[in-house]
Design goal:
By secondary structure, this protein is α/β, with parallel strands linked by helices. The protein is 47% helix and 15% strand. The structure holds NADP nicotinamide-adenine-dinucleotide phosphate.
Length: 254
């Protein structure tokens, strides 16, 4: 397919690479960030612009990969022929935000944590939706070309619900890593020594449910150990609060 990508951040970069690998042609990168757009255009041997009014009108699909709060503004400025397919990449934004842009609109949501620096591209499940059959079919086809079997249709409600779960398992977990890394640094420990544990904990839940997989002092109600940990954390009030909250949650979730 011939595709125009609007945006030049994490999702624009990774989806663009996936599209190229999937054999699609990127006609143009459109972004207010002229230097990021021209860097991507160079990588994909295509053109770029930072003027949305100069958008290429010949693509089959227009992918809007900008910050959630900017999708509405982009939609109000975007002038493409009415029959073109336009989709944004946000889980938490309704597809209807694009209803005035074209008669064919939808969503192309990659359920993965994406960073523009990625060159080794991970598996990216795609959750798509469209306002009509043509849009839905085309976005599904595009999704299959980059994600093979991990492609599912998801309406606005299910995407939003999925997003909450995604934030918990990915962003919150990563925040805990970040706090633990800072704690390790201050205590003269090497955070990297925890990597085998992190890997094992993540891999285990492929086979058993996270609830079954839970170990540690909280689930065992090892009161003395819990006390010692809290004592050690008295100089880390933020971490101590989270420790208490999660300990209580683990003990309630039996
Ligand atoms: N990253 C992920 O893991 C992920 C996964 C799934 C879905 N998504 C969704 O994909 C979308 C893009 O996320 P991202 O991670 O790629 O974000 P990002 O890396 O922060 O990039 C955002 C892009 O939007 C542009 N932008 C921001 N505000 C703008 C405005 N007011 N007007 C015009 N352009 C604006 C930015 O331009 P500047 O460079 O000039 O700021 C940049 O090109 C979001 O809807 C997000 O919810 C993200």
């Amino acid at each position: 397919m011939d595709i125009v990508i609007i945006g030049s951040g994490n999702v624009a970069s990774v989806l663009g690479r996936k599209f190229k690998t999937g054999g699609h042609r990127i006609l143009q990168v459109v972004s207010r960030n002229a230097s990021a757009a021209s860097k991507l255009a160079y990588e994909w041997d295509t053109e770029s612009t930072n003027y949305i009014s100069l958008i290429n009108k010949n693509a089959e699909v227009y992918i809007i990969a900008v910050a959630d709060d900017a999708i509405g503004d982009i939609a109000s400025e975007l002038a493409i022929p009415a029959k073109k397919i336009v989709a944004h990449t946000a889980a938490a934004v309704s597809k209807d935000i694009l209803r005035k842009v074209s008669s064919h609109y939808g969503v192309f949501y990659p359920l993965q944590s994406l960073r523009k620096e990625m060159t080794l591209l991970p598996d990216i499940p795609i959750f798509f939706d469209g306002n009509d059959e043509k849009t839905t079919k085309t976005l599904e086809q595009l999704a299959h070309s980059i994600a093979r079997e991990k492609v599912l249709r998801a309406d606005d409600d299910s995407r939003l619900k999925l997003h909450v779960a995604a934030v918990i398992v990915s962003n919150f977990t990563n925040h805990l890593y970040s706090l633990a890394e800072e704690y390790c640094r201050k205590e003269g420990l090497d955070f990297k020594q925890l990597l085998p544990l992190i890997e094992e904990t993540a891999l285990r839940i492929k086979d058993i449910s996270p609830q079954q997989a839970q170990t540690g002092p909280a689930i065992r109600h090892d009161k003395e150990t819990l006390e010692k940990h809290l004592q050690l954390l008295k100089n880390y009030p933020q971490l101590k609060n989270i420790y208490l909250l999660l300990t209580e949650s683990i003990q309630q979730n039996k």
